[in-house]
């Protein structure tokens, strides 16, 4: 029979000291209930004993645990309001009549989960954490207008996924300002703007996020798990939803893929805007669809590229060193030697030097060491490269436009009319029927058919399989970018070889994601190359990135096409700031192969010259026997880890619209940067006061004297 309040009163009167603080008493009561399984074990053991042994180990433990409960300090109260601790007496006392106490409360062998028998969790209330309107000025008695409960739609029953991964039903209540009629939801505020429209602003520290307009809410902690799953397991939206559903295993409710994506976009819209310092003034249409929100956020944090928040001013011991100057005149070693690499044999017959561009000096000016007490500056090294992480774009080669329809469309907004002309360029004749992609020319129809047969049936794993086979057979020569490309044999069309036929039969992809990161791995910025990783595109990428931060340019950029880039810069404009701010260097492997044939590469791009001309890149240390050894000053291996981590997202990204792609890359860069910054702190690699003193030429010892 269920216990009534009367029984509870008796229990409190009989077993609990009246001077015990109320939080402590209720806590002891929950602990008591949780001990019930131990009492069963105790009674069972007594039954078996031939002679009645009054005490068992079980009962001993019950007593100890009860006493601890009376002492538990986490409740933050002075448990015994009179100051006299009577835990010992009372736990003894309760234990003597424990089975009667359970009977009074109505706990029996059939009670499931006795601990939550009395204290069920109430249904969560979802309401704004604000009290007053944030828009309206103070009114009567200088008070800000208070929020009232909105009249329309009193309490709404919604589903909520709790922080402990359970679906529960919750009550949503919306607040409203009586003056301006702004609606206050737990995660957003909507308000009227001129023209009968409403806009919304985000609540940045919202504890719950709405993931469906049909009343589904998710605790922010779940969004954090999603964030961690992305970082640790490369988990996409659908994977995460599947995992949540496997874990909650609730027959009534599950998280859909769309809701998982919505959670991601809601959570990271807030994270990105906060990280980029763009929360003030951000708004979009009220109750916006997730694509609208994502597009709006992308507009603010960077479309088709972006700078990672805080990265410009990043510095740590692994990417930033005090500037070093060349000591003395003696040059031991070879200007074209590379520290840590054996010189490869150079066939003199192959040497056909490409000369330096005319406006490039043959001898580099030497930097003089500043006088003691003068600032000597610092150097930062960055690593740049292109990664084969793509999204689809317009089928016309020269067009960078996003597709109107990413599911199965081929053209951007501006080129939609191309749907009605032949897909073989430059035919230009109208298509033969509404669903055709070529004109009525039989050779065009036939060429398209064989193209379809070769290509369209290949799925992404299929393409990868073919590439692996081609690589194994050694017939892949276009291994330029990370990740080889697929080569498919196509029939010739008239005189044009198959692979040279220009057509619009399927959407194209961007060429690569271009990233630049500090040597320690902190990403600085990203952008896209559309047709190839061409030097003009790469130059415009870095110029755009540092446009607002000319004084924060890296001292070194390691890039596998640094020589081409440098040649391009110097031919374009011999006074370009890049030529004085930054040295572009290649990796050792490229250098050993290229130095023989390219004087620019040999004289400007050596990653670690052995002649002492680049003390910032090469350290000379004396060992115990007095022999000098040269080592690289920067280790770029950590910067490479970003690449392998990003590669794990390739198949997810290639399915995405340009908006989702950009949003996702922003998120990945934000997360990666945060993790590296955490590692810098954990490993104590921050720049110290001594470092800055040295950079600024301040001698503390002298100052102390
Ligand atoms: Zn108001
Ligand atoms: Zn760093
Ligand atoms: Zn286009
Ligand atoms: Zn045609
Ligand atoms: Zn080169």
UniProtKB/TrEMBL annotation:
Q: Which parts of the sequence belong to the CxC6 like cysteine cluster associated with KDZ domain?
A: 383-449
Checking InterPro entries in the record gives: CxC5, CxC6
Write down the superkingdom of origin. Eukaryota
CxC5 like cysteine cluster associated with KDZ domain segment(s): 127-247
Q: What is this protein called?
A: CxC5 like cysteine cluster associated with KDZ domain-containing protein
Which species does this protein come from? Mycena metata
């Amino acid at each position: 029979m269920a216990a009534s309040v009367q029984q509870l009163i008796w229990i409190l009167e009989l077993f609990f000291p009246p001077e015990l603080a109320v939080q402590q008493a209720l806590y002891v009561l929950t602990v008591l209930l949780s001990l019930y399984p131990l009492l069963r074990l105790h009674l069972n053991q007594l039954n078996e004993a031939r002679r009645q042994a009054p005490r068992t180990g079980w009962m001993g433990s019950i007593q100890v645990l009860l006493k601890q409960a009376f002492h538990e300090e986490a409740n933050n109260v002075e448990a015994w309001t009179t100051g006299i601790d009577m835990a010992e007496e009372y736990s003894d006392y309760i234990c003597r009549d424990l089975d009667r106490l359970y009977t009074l409360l109505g706990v029996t062998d059939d009670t499931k989960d006795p601990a939550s028998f009395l204290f069920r969790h109430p249904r969560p209330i979802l309401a704004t954490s604000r009290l007053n309107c944030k828009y309206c000025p103070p009114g009567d008695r200088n008070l800000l207008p208070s929020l009232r409960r909105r009249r329309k739609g009193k309490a709404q029953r919604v589903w909520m996924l709790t922080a402990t991964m359970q679906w529960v039903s919750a009550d949503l209540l919306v607040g409203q300002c009586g003056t301006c009629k702004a609606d206050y939801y737990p995660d957003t505020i909507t308000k009227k703007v001129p023209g009968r429209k409403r806009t919304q602003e985000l609540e940045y520290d919202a504890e719950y996020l709405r993931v469906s307009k049909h009343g589904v809410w998710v605790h922010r902690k779940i969004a954090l798990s999603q964030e961690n799953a992305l970082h640790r397991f490369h988990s996409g939206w659908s994977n995460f939803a599947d995992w949540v559903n496997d874990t909650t295993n609730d027959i009534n409710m599950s998280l859909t893929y769309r809701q998982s994506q919505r959670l991601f976009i809601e959570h990271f819209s807030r994270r990105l805007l906060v990280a980029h310092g763009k929360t003030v003034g951000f708004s979009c249409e009220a109750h916006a669809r997730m694509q609208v929100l994502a597009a709006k956020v992308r507009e603010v944090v960077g479309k088709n590229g972006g700078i990672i928040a805080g990265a410009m001013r990043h510095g740590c011991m692994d990417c930033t060193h005090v500037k070093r100057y060349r000591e003395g005149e003696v040059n031991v070693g070879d200007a074209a030697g590379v520290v840590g690499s054996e010189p490869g044999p150079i066939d003199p017959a192959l040497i056909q030097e490409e000369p330096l561009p005319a406006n490039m000096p043959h001898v580099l000016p030497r930097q003089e060491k500043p006088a003691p007490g003068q600032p000597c500056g610092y150097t930062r090294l960055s690593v740049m490269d292109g990664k084969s992480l793509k999204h689809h774009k317009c089928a016309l080669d020269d067009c960078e436009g996003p597709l109107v329809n990413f599911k199965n469309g081929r053209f951007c907004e501006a080129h939609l009319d191309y749907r009605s002309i032949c897909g073989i360029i430059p035919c230009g004749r109208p298509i033969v029927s509404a669903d055709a992609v070529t004109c009525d020319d039989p050779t065009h129809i036939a060429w398209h058919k064989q193209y379809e047969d070769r290509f369209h049936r290949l799925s992404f794993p299929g393409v990868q399989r073919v590439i692996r086979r081609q690589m194994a057979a050694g017939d892949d020569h276009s291994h330029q970018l990370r990740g080889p490309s697929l080569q498919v044999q196509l029939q010739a069309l008239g005189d044009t070889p198959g692979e040279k036929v220009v057509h619009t039969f399927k959407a194209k992809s961007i060429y690569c994601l271009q990233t630049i990161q500090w040597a320690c791995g902190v990403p600085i910025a990203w952008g896209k190359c559309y047709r190839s990783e061409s030097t003009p595109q790469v130059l415009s990428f870095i110029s755009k990135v540092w446009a607002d931060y000319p004084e924060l340019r890296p001292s070194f950029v390691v890039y596998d096409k640094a020589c081409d880039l440098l040649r391009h810069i110097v031919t374009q404009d011999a006074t370009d700031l890049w030529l004085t701010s930054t040295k572009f260097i290649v990796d050792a492997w490229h250098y050993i192969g290229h130095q023989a044939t390219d004087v620019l590469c040999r004289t400007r791009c050596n990653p670690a010259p052995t002649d002492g001309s680049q003390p910032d890149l090469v350290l000379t240390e004396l060992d115990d026997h007095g022999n000098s050894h040269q080592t690289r000053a920067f280790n770029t291996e950590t910067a490479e880890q970003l690449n392998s981590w990003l590669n794990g997202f390739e198949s997810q990204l290639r399915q995405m619209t340009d908006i989702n792609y950009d949003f996702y890359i922003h998120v990945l860069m934000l997360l990666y940067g945060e993790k590296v910054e955490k590692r810098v702190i954990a490993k104590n690699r921050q720049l110290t006061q001594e470092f800055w003193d040295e950079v600024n030429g301040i001698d503390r010892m002298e100052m102390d004297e």
